[in-house]
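Board notes (copied after class):
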Amino acid sequence: MARPFAGHEPVTVWLHAGVYYLLEPIRFTAADSGTEKYPVVYAAAPGETPVISGGQKLKLDWKPLRDGIFQAQTTPGLVMDQLFVNGARQPMARYPNYDPNAPIYNGTAADAISPERVARWSDPTGGYIHAMHESLWGDMHWRILGKNADGSLKYEGGWQNNRSSGMHQQFRFVENIREELDAPGEWFHDAKANTLLFIPPAGLDLKTATIEVVGLRNLVEFAGTEAQPVRFVTLRGITFRHAARTFMENREPLLRTDWTIYRGGALLFNGAKDCTISDCDFDQLGGNSIFVNNYNRRLTIRDCLIREGGANGIAFVGDPKAVRSALFNYDQANNFADIDRTPGPKNNNYPADCIVDDCLITRTGRFEKQTAPMEIDMAERITVRHCSIYDVPRAGINIGDGCWGGHVIEFCDVFDTVKETGDHGSFNSWGRDRYWNLRGVPAGELPKLALLDVVQPNILRNNRWRCDHGWDIDLDDGSSHYLIYNNLLLNGGLKFREGFQRTATNNIIVNNSLHLHVWFENSGDVFARNIVMTEYRPIYMTIPKWGAEIDYNLFTGLEADRLKYAAEGCDAHSLAGDPLFVNAAAGDFRVQPSSPVLSLGFVNFPMDQFGVLSPRLKALASTPVIPTFITIHAGTTSATQTVWLGATIRELIGEEYSVVGVRAGSQGILLVNVPVNTAAFADGLRTGDFITRLNGREVKGVDDFLKVIVNSAGQKAELELLRNQQPMVREVNF
């Protein structure tokens, strides 16, 4: 450590090439700090690559067992979380077998824990069950404790999702089961017998192979406090490898998001200021790569490569005790009379004024799907710039709440996202803050209350986004106070749902449009001087006027697209026509000087500054597929509408599954419109209700629903339904 000289002269500690296996985490305290004038630097020696490892190297005497399986004795007490052979992570014995081309979990099977499968296992204790959420909002994990007397599995877990569900019926798998050891690359460690079993892939020479196992969760800890922080310490040019998986420790709920969190990582920051991580690689780590926990200020993470991580790439997460009138579950709601109406945080115990610059983050979420390469919760003024983020199971960048804004996302390239989950975007956010679903709000107060937490606007500018399994930018439930400009959206469009003070200007939305989901009255939203290529996509827009301004946009389709929502006060000055892109096929969506959109106030922005800049990372980074520029017309729904008790009903289509809060394909009927003077309204039904059951029986669709009604004429019936994604029961008279 640099402690004898720290703060008295500049100190550089050179690390030479080699793998440094840790018995415990490296820990920096305030006593190890430098100063602005005399910083402390731990750096790779010029031209060399030191590796900090949370594992250990094993020397094993391999012997053939049977069926291609080799075995070796291990030392008593050895704990193995992962196995690396010649630097590559190997899969635990699992069912179904690991398939690099399978889109979810690298292979799933509906019968993963079927009675027939479980009967094959003599003692599955220590195994794991992994399953997606029923609505694909993330995943959950269970540790197998053994078998019950009837032969069924005994297990614990499932706490990794803050809007939990049962296991997905199809997307599930098991691992660490001895009887499932049957494919090249798989391994199983029998801790009782101190024996490691392994099926080597073809061509692997076990006699010369490097065998490493993983033990530590955290490799380096910055352990300071607000009063005594770790300051002016830099780590540069170091590779971090071999950190344990943490999916069973991921159980702390965040603020009314879908998420839970584990507060740890290969690099863990607590109470640090003015520290820097530069030119470092984070390779195949089992949990979070970098976790910035609670009070931290002015941290810089620059020129780093993060890949094949088990959970989040970089997470900034503050203390819920800093949040005023905090709630933790989606179903909870505050009362206006009870909330603290003081703007901003209660204390300083959260990350602020940190920068992530010029980083390549790819293939995170290998073990935990409710994660993101960049996760921000209960933090303030986090800047993410010139990052390339792609090939991940869920959103590329996630902001989980409105606490406390001031975040800037700029010049990033985010694509190939939402590959294993559903109902998200390349950028995903929530704003389920103290104002959201607030009860007893006086008229006109809600727009002001929405800014109590997100006191500074979040800015998304000069980015390129592409999501092929959701929206490019998804501002979900209550997301408020956003400035979105100079963004190129390549596929999924822009979604605004239930928020206030969102301004989107000077964006280009390729082959898509603005998705308006359930807006508040007097939202203050602005959508102007954008290029869109289809008509808007409204769902449940029952207010008489949409936002403060939707105008001065260019539609690349028909004049009818511009005029379709004129009754809602939209696009009186907008135009329809050819935008005259410079070279759309090559990804240059700047417009030519004669483009009609320039007369509306649109201004060209650079198309060659997205993503990483450093030559090292640029040589490694991928870029998104540029779509063919086409003109699409959303058209009208083809779903059959029926009138029942004066209400218009039909089945769900398209994005309405997301709005209702059910997985795609869910059965039931949607109440499209329930006028006030109807029998349906008198029975307590409302526009937007989604009926799922009638007298305890699943509703399979309109025809099925009406058939039951005909057979129940003159009777009372019990309807189970979802309203604002909340279950409730209503009694109606047929």
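Comment from the instructor: Residues 702-710 form the longest helix (9 residues). Residues 56-214 form one domain.
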